[in-house]
Design a protein that fits this description.
Strand order of the largest sheet: 2-1-3-4-5-11
Helix content: 40-55%
Protein name: LacI family DNA-binding transcriptional regulator
CATH architecture of the largest domain: 3-Layer(aba) Sandwich
Order of helices and strands: HHHHEHEHEHEEHEHEHEHEHEHEE
Distance between the termini: 61 Å
Largest sheet: 6 strands, parallel
Mean pLDDT: 88
Keywords: DNA-binding, Transcription, Transcription regulation
GO molecular function, one term: DNA-binding transcription factor activity
Structural class: alpha/beta
CATH class of the largest domain: Alpha Beta
Number of strands: 12
Shape: elongated
CATH superfamily of the largest domain: Response regulator
Length: 343
């Protein structure tokens, strides 16, 4: 028996050759029932698209570039790992491959773009960690090169296709929950001002306090990490009341903490425990990212739909590559959800 072909799959699934092609290249145009039947035939016959032939027809490499940022702390870095895994799995379903590379800064990353386009003929790029005055997005826009970003174009006039998670909605969910639990001194532990996602998460907390009529709450900005969370909690507790009794009635010590990351939240819980304050009983703590560490340690957290984000990045980029991009760049903002545990 020879190698299975598009025609043999079509015959096995009792559909046309074009329908099989659509299932492989444009599954959204095929009904779910027909798509399942064709995919079953593909798996049964062991059919694999002829990538080399496709490249000759389309002059595309089927390769998507993604720069891996410098490694951060081990807790928050899990989010990027989850995104990369989901992005790779989704891309492979459409016969695309993810090519990883590294760069020290924005300028180095744009040089890498130029090298990859010239040497590999890379089709497009997925960007992460967008920020204010992002040189990478300007470089790609000026050259009209295909890309989509996981992250919004913070504070710039240029617009481009992006997918993101509504951080403000996530911290608002956390703050509203704490208000319903009776907390009135709810602190925020986040990153220094100027971080797009950090400012977004701070805004949701502030909006939640304002909606509850609580006014401005205490906040501390620190660099991400468990030690950063620990030092932030110490400063907030020491400023709020007498040492040894931070929850003395009438003092300004917070009874709840909304954090911009799970790393910060873990630092906060460590400092609370060192002071004899029980997270979840004496004080509430909610992180952000819902990492596996948070699940293991019982930390309440805001969960991002990372798999959905990755799938949407691939969908948007495929649309651009196929010339189906809308007149205005596509933008998708997903809403996170709150996962409550023991803290």
């Amino acid at each position: 028996m020879g190698r299975p072909t598009l025609n043999s799959v079509a015959e096995a699934a009792a559909v046309s050759r074009q329908t099989v092609s659509n299932v492989i290249n444009s599954p959204e145009v095929v009904s779910p029932e027909t798509r399942e039947r064709v995919q079953a035939a593909i798996e049964k016959l062991g059919y694999r698209p002829n990538t080399a032939a496709r490249q000759m027809r389309t002059t595309r490499s089927q390769i998507i570039g993604l720069c891996i940022p410098p490694s951060g702390n081990g807790v928050s870095g899990v989010v990027l790992d989850q995104f990369l895994h989901s992005l790779t799995a989704t891309a492979e379903r459409y016969d695309h491959r993810i090519m990883l590379f590294t760069a020290a800064d924005d300028e180095a990353e744009t040089r890498a773009y130029a090298d990859l386009i010239a040497s590999v003929g890379i089709d497009g790029f997925v960007l992460t960690s967008t920020h204010h005055d992002d040189l990478r997005t300007r470089w790609l826009l000026e050259r009209e090169l295909p890309f989509v970003s996981f992250g919004r174009p913070w504070g710039v006039e240029d617009t481009h296709p992006w997918v993101d998670v509504d951080g403000a909605a996530g911290t608002r969910l956390a703050t509203d929950h704490l208000v319903r639990q009776g907390h009135r001194r709810i602190a925020f532990v986040g990153w220094p001002e100027g971080s797009g996602s950090g400012d977004d998460r701070r805004a949701g907390w502030a909006a939640g306090l304002a909606a509850a009529g609580l006014g401005a709450g205490p906040q501390v900005a620190v660099f991400d990490g468990v030690e950063g969370g620990r030092s932030a909690a110490a400063r907030l507790l020491d400023a709020g009341g007498p040492a040894g009794d931070p929850f003395l009635p009438g003092t300004g010590a917070p009874t709840a903490f909304v954090c911009a990351s799970d790393s910060l939240a873990l630092g906060v819980t460590a400092e609370l425990r060192d002071r004899g304050i029980r997270p979840g009983a004496d004080a509430a703590v909610i992180g952000f990212d819902d990492t596996p560490t948070a699940s293991v340690l019982g930390l309440s957290s805001v969960a991002q739909p990372i798999a959905d984000v990755a799938a949407e990045c691939v969908r948007q980029l495929r649309g651009i590559l196929r010339g189906e991009a809308p007149a205005e760049p596509a933008t998708t903002l997903f809403t996170p959800h709150l996962v409550l545990r023991t803290t």
